[in-house]
Each structure stands twice: as structure tokens, then as C-alpha cells.
Amino acid sequence: MSAPATVDLEELATRLDEAQRRATAVPQLTVPISVDQAYEVQARSLARRYARGERRIGIKMGFTSRAKMAQMGISDMIFGRLTDRMLIEPGASVPRSRFVHPRVEPEVAFLLGRPLSGHIDPMTAQAAVAGVAPALEIIDSRYQDFKFSLPEVIADNSSSSALVIGPWADPAISLDNLGLQLEIDGVARQVGSTAAILGHPLFSLVAAARLLAAHGEQLDAGDIVMAGGATPAEALRGGEFVQLTLQKLGSVSFYLLAGAMRADE
Ligand code: OOG
Ligand code: MG
């Protein structure tokens, strides 16, 4: 009998990190890995980014809305790590060449004034929030055709790629049911509500603290937490102006510069 295949987690981390750096797609994994192994790959690939001088700025949550779960066929919440290299200034132009096959989704961002860790209640989470903002996340799976299993997307830093944060607003503004509209070139493409995010985006913050603790991490004061897409993500080609307007919180936008299409599209 042949020995079971052992998975080289460091090799996977390196492969996914390189795919991200070069904006080139890689095939899905040939050997299945567990969720715990996937978070280990994610941590190792982020360690490579930190070693290159990138700084951790927070956490993103994924699959916190039914719309996102249905779009990708995955129904477990996940998290990914955010670094300063992923931050795009509001209104800035971003080259298409940075991405494999970018998609954009409307989100809400939290800014933490205090650390949060483990099992906390929504009131504790609320008390730690120093600001809330409309935010756009650009996700970009490093897997060919944007197809992956749950462990595969976790290993790929939950498709984290870039984010644009709008003006920080008063944390006392209730996020339970704020209307939102995602426009591309002035045309409404997704309309929804922050209620789509676990009923209330604060629950995403509660879940982030719990999930991170299960993987030996915590949320720190100064961290940004992206609550997760409120609607399905919209694919971008390049050459589009993207804007999110969120009731009470205002707007945030960016421009994706046109660029040559990539070989896998
Ligand atoms: C995974 C990331 C999911 C969200 O907001 O739900 C996510 C993906 O869809 O590629 O960012
Ligand atoms: Mg997202």
C-alpha cells in the first residue's frame, strides 16, 4: 500500500503568494486539504507578504450574506487577512493588470478602537467600534475560472485583493438596515441592504472575533474589519468607474483602468 500523500503547506503558500504577486491564475489543488490546513497555508502566504514589508491592517469576512453564499456555492463563513498594499485611495485609478479576474462587491467596514477576541456579544463588539464606513472590496481568486472549494479559497486568503474605504462615520449610526446601491459607469448593478449581512453587520464582527480566536489570532485596536459582501459580486473588465452609495454613510468609488485582457479569460 502506498503511503498517504503528505501535503507540503509551505509549497502551497508559496505557489498562491506567487500567483497573487504576478496576477496569474493557478489550477485548483490536486490533493484535498482540511480547513485548518487551509488557514495554515493562508498564514504562511501572508508571512511571506509581511517579510516583503507589507503591514497587516485588519481582516475581511467572507460568505456573511446568502447572496454571496449562493453565488459561490459555499455556505461557511471564512476570513482573510488585509495588508496596507491592498488599500486603494477613494477615487483613485487602479491598473487592471494588478488582477487576474477582478470582481467588486459592496461592503461595510468597521474601524476598531479596542481589541476583540473570542466569544463576545454584539454589545461588546459595538463598544469596540470607533468608526463605520462604506467600502468596496475587489476580490480576485487566484484559481482558474474563479472556481474553488472551501479550503481552497481559505488558502488563497479568501480572495482578498484590494479594498477602498469611504469616509469614516459615527459608530453610533445603526447598520441594521441601510439601503445601498452599487453602480458601474453610472448604472445601478446591485441594490440591497446591510441587513443582508447576517441580519446586521455587527454579527460579522462578532463572528470575526470568534473565528480568529479559533486560529490563534485576534482583532487589534486600529484594525479594519470588512463585514462581507451584501450582494453578489460584479465582474469587472477594466475601464469602469465603480461607486457604492450607502444610506447615511455616503459614497466611495474607484476607477479600474482598462488593460490588456489576460490569457485565461
Ligand atoms: C470569496 C470571498 C468572499 C465576501 O464578501 O463574501 C467575500 C469569493 O467570493 O471569492 O469576500
Ligand atoms: Mg468580500
Compact overview of the structure:
This protein is of the alpha+beta class and 265 residues long. The protein has helices at residues 9-22, 35-51, 66-72, 122-128, 150-155, 202-214; strands spanning 56-62, 78-83, 87-88, 93-95, 103-112, 129-139, 160-165, 179-184, 187-193, 224-226, 234-235, 240-246, 250-257.
Write up this protein.
Strands 1, 2, 3, 5, 6, 7, 10 and 11 form an eight-stranded mixed β-sheet that branches. Strands 4-13-12-8-9 form a five-stranded mixed β-sheet, with no helix packed on it. Helix content is 24%, strand content 29%. The chain contains six helices and 13 strands. The mean pLDDT is 95. Helix 1 (9-22) packs across helix 2 (35-51). The protein has 265 residues and is α+β, with helices and mostly antiparallel strands. The N and C termini lie far apart (42 Å). The longest helix has 17 residues, at 35-51. It has helices at residues 9-22, 35-51, 66-72, 122-128, 150-155, 202-214; strands at 56-62, 78-83, 87-88, 93-95, 103-112, 129-139, 160-165, 179-184, 187-193, 224-226, 234-235, 240-246, 250-257. 2-oxoadipic acid binds next to strand 1, helix 3 and strand 6.
